[in-house]
């Protein structure tokens, strides 16, 4: 997560003039930044999404675990009166193969332009994180446990960076007496409908001294009328693919709409110890063409303890519990308990090594890929194993790697 680490900014005057096309007397800058992260990982059982048998242990190279590998450009130009023109272009990549993080998307992580003012806030347009994530991320388990290993199972509640929204207009207020609020709307552009495929979100955050609190809501609409196969015109489409499909949500991916409500809080005891906690409520709402028939709801509670005993060491531990409601003929609702540990050592201001451990236990039942058959719930960890979950109710994962920021 980029917010955890200060970026090392490189001011390149000539590049700024070429990339922004500004006059010689304009105060402008362009920042080049990036992260490269690679390591090794083990999981006790690996199978294809939707399978409940045939799992095998796997040892493989993993990348973008502590912080997604990326490179990007940020720019700002003074327009007068404190107002700035701003832009961000950020591409994710696989450090193990050099491939794009998302095929056919050149700047898959972020691509937006806008205006900012210290008195009035900022307004941006493009592919970006919705307001829900931006103000809740400070209390997300991914801060110290990573999204790959530490997001709530499958990143069901969207507290990691997986949910980016296309065609988005976003307003972010300045801090007012400790409060900050934001709202975003994402257009799908489907002819004849404003709502179909759109997404919107709103959130408010309060941070004063050692206390922090945020509340957010988001809604994602499927551009396919009445639900069904996820439409490529949907605002959260990743080159046509649906975000957040995992062993937890696999049987419900034909929903007409998804809704998420979240509360996050944090308290900093001192420079060495802090705690964060989250509660989320997620609803997958069926339409007439959805494969499942009744609304499915998951409630998740989680807590993370972070300890920094020295300037170079960071340790964290976390626990989350997710429980689904009984619906769609299921009498024993799915439950997921996830335990996480992380250790991080700073070799320098820009480079660190890490080790991560995680365990998930699943119980109860869920729906199969066809949205109708009832199967045993199977384990998955974070959102790094969404396409390779366990074939059984339990799963163990361990990872280690090195991350460098420039």
What does this structure look like?
The structure is a single chain. The protein has 406 residues and is mainly beta. The protein is built from 4 helices and 20 strands. A 16-stranded antiparallel beta barrel has the order 2-4-5-6-7-8-9-10-11-12-13-14-15-16-17-20. A two-stranded antiparallel sheet has the order 18-19. Strand 10 (199-208) and strand 11 form a beta hairpin. The two termini are 14 Å apart. Mean pLDDT is 93; it is low at 1-25.
List keywords for this structure.
Porin; 406 residues; 16-stranded antiparallel β-barrel; mainly beta; globular; 20 strands; disordered N terminus; two-stranded antiparallel sheet
Give the gist of this structure.
With 406 residues, the chain is mainly β.
- Tell me the major beta sheet: 16 strands, antiparallel, barrel
What is the number of beta strands? 20
From the alpha-carbon coordinates, what is the Rg to the nearest angstrom? Answer: 21 Å
Here the CATH topology equals Porin
Estimated structural class: mainly beta
Q: What is the overall shape?
A: globular
Strand order of the largest sheet: 2-4-5-6-7-8-9-10-11-12-13-14-15-16-17-20
As residue ranges, the low-confidence spans are: 1-25
Domain unit count? 1
- Under CATH, the homologous superfamily reads Porin
Q: If helices are DSSP runs of H or I spanning 4 or more residues, what is the number of helices?
A: 4
End-to-end distance: 14 Å
Strand content: over 45%
Give the averaged pLDDT, no decimals. 93
CATH class type: Mainly Beta
Helix content: under 10%
Would you identify the CATH architecture? Beta Barrel
The H/E string reads: EHEEEEEEHHHEEEEEEEEEEEEE
Domain Porin: 14-364
Membrane topology: Multi-pass membrane protein
InterPro entries: Gram-neg_bact_OMP, Gram_neg_porin_domain, Porin_dom_sf, Porin_Gram-ve, Porin_Neis
Protein name: Porin Gram-negative type
